[in-house]
Amino acid sequence: AYLRLAPLAVIFLLAASVSKTEGGSPTCGETCFGGTCYTPGCVCDPWPICTKNHIIASTAKTVDQYR
């Protein structure tokens, strides 16, 4: 039974380690106003700070965010 669960455990460990991989400086230098960032490529994800749009597949809420 444990042999069948081993690949599943490996998948969860890899997903957790990939979840936080982002490159570059995450800040854009502005705060969100009304939930909107005016710097191109920035999003208001952790309100109230605009961050660069480093969305990867594991954190994307929609398919359009990942493209």
UniProtKB/TrEMBL annotation:
Keywords attached to this entry: Disulfide bond, Plant defense, Signal
Pfam families in UniProt: Cyclotide
InterPro entries with a match to the protein in the record: Cyclotide (IPR005535), Cyclotide_moebius_CS (IPR012324), Cyclotide_sf (IPR036146)
GO BP terms in the entry: defense response
UniProt key word Disulfide bond: yes
Signal peptide: 1-23
Residue runs in coiled coils: none
Cytoplasm found in the keyword field: no
Name the UniProt record assigns to this protein: Albumin 1
